[in-house]
Amino acid sequence: MTPDPFYPSVLARAFAVLCLLFVAACGALPGGSDLQDKTVLTDVPVSSTEMLSLLNAYRQQNGLPPLRHDPRLDQVSQGMAQHIAKRDSMDTWQHSAFGLSSRLEKADYPNYAGAENLGAGYADLGAAFRGWQGSSGHNKNLLNPYVTRVGIARTNRNTGTWRNFWVMTLSRPVSDGRPG
């Protein structure tokens, strides 16, 4: 009798079941399920031109001078964006006057004034900026008359609550002179 080609043999079925069990068991191996849940942080470039356009137009509407982009402040901002993204939270002692002062000092950035805006969850720069405008403390930083320079950074997180973390650092370096 010739076997029917449409019905696998018992041995072939047993092999198929064993393969499925093996694949399913891979998730139970140490690190198997962790591969999907591993947190990955990605620094995302932010257009300094777009940031300056939004910020300086807003400052001009409020009778304030424009700020200049400072790549060193981008670096300070990026360090903080990574810090809060790792934590999936903006609740950190580093987000304080002392924390910002320490980070600027560590970056060898002597200054007369400094301020910082954090944001989480915003999908793009425009949304982050509108969020800062809508918060009295953050808005005060955007309109700070003593700062002269600005940097910005964004870090994305593939897991967690917020996914997008934004930091804007504003400062007045000593090289720009004392506030008048």
UniProtKB/TrEMBL annotation:
It comes from the Bacteria. It comes from Roseibium denhamense. SUPFAM superfamilies: PR-1-like. This is Cysteine-rich secretory protein family protein. Residues 52-168 form the SCP domain. Gene3D superfamilies: CAP. It holds the Pfam family CAP. Transmembrane segments: none annotated. InterPro entries: CAP_dom, CAP_sf.
